[in-house]
Amino acid sequence: MNRRSLLQSAAALAPALLARPGWAQAAPAPRRLALGFDNFSIRALGWKAGQVLDYAASLQVDCLLLSDLDVYESHGEGYLKDLGKKARDSGIALYAGTGGICPSAHRFPDKWGSADEHLALSIRVAQAVGSPVLRCYQGFAEDRKSPGGIPARQRDTVKVCQAAKSRAVDAGVKIAIENHAGDMQAWELRELVEACGKDFVGVTIDCGNATWTLEDPMANLEILAPYVLCSGMRDSMIWDDAEGVQVQWTAVGEGLVDMKAYGQRYAELCPEAPFILEIISGFARPFPWRKADFWDAYGRVRPGEFARFLNLSQKGHSIPSWQPAAGEDRKDAEPAYQKAELERSLAYCRTKLGMGRR
Fold first, then answer.
1. How many Å separate Cα 243 from the centre of its chain?
2. Which of 151, 320, 162 is nearest to 248 (CA)?
3. Does 23 have pLDDT greater than 80?
4. Dist CA 351 CA 355 (whole Å)
5. What are φ and ψ of residue 250, in 5° steps?
6. Rounded Cα gap, residues 321 and 177, in angstroms
């Protein structure tokens, strides 16, 4: 056999050989995470859903979370379906959301009726715009100090979710409860989802809110990953003070969280869940954990997880809170500040973390 015949025979045999067990094949490149943002990131603009959607289209994002019911001009079926179609025509997947659904939680938003009525309306809105999930939350950090604490609020949330199960299942909408504003640590939210029923209830994971419950965001992710349906993401800076720590949320890539490692692990554990930015920044919140009475609200303390948080805090340093330029009114300056924080975060996720499909 001459050289030319040998090469032709090898080329013809190669596909068959590579298909046989034991022959190495190149693995397909992993699909990039869908990248988007939550309208709360630009709350100071006061835009309605159509305006937010136009802005999202201009940024070429993959998805958009409309996280409250007030963002819509109407809850009428026609308007909502038209909005969903507009999003799809723009190549954007819409995710719908609302606020607290626990009737006994701190600041329960009774403007939408009872908890059952609120959840029913929210599921209907999600279905009409074509959202696969409904992002919502249980409550706030203040619920830790309420009668019965977090366990009592969880029992009430379970009742509301289970009462809405048939409605959610029929609508094809899963309820995605967020770890919100210091209300639940990851293990508590996991317990809640399991009690509700993970066949129709999951998680909206928020790595910024993890730092408000004294958790390392990576530890929070490892616990919640099996339940994640949606997300709300930002970075955090943490630093020691005399009474405990200060936490300030930041644009992505400007805090102390290793967002490259976090993004990679998120892609491994939650490849079908979107990476949605909810940028809230510019102010610090104190967590005086060195005071004995601070822990009264925490019930079952998990020392190992708290130790991971403290190790993370040692890497941080104090940063100033945002202030408008001298002579500029804060209310007038906030829209531009929030847009800049969001757009800088989107750019970081695309160029440094390899996210986004467009």
1. 29
2. 320
3. no
4. 8
5. -140, 175
6. 29
Mean pLDDT, rounded, for 220-241: 98
Q: What's the pTM value of the predicted model, to 2 decimals?
A: 0.91
Confidence (pLDDT) at 184: 96
Question: For residue 315, what pLDDT is reported?
Answer: 96
Q: Domain-by-domain residue ranges, the chain?
A: 31-351
What are residue 232's DSSP bridge partners? 206
Would you say how long the chain is, in residues? 358
Q: Which residues pair with 95 in a beta bridge?
A: 65
Residue 233: CB atoms within 10 A of its CB come to 26
Contacts of 141 (CB under 8 A, 6+ apart): 181, 182, 183, 212, 213, 297
- 3-state class of 278 per DSSP? coil
Strand partners, 65: 38, 95
Mean pLDDT across 221-238: 98
DSSP structure string for 222-261: HHHGGGEEEEEB-EEEEEE-SSSEEEEEESTTSSSS-HHH
CATH class of 31-351: alpha beta
Which tokens sit at 129? 């715009």
Confirm if 217 and 228 have CB atoms less than 8 A apart.
no
pLDDT, tens digit, 9 for 90 and up, residues 90-124: 999 999 999 999 999 988 988 999 999 999 999 99
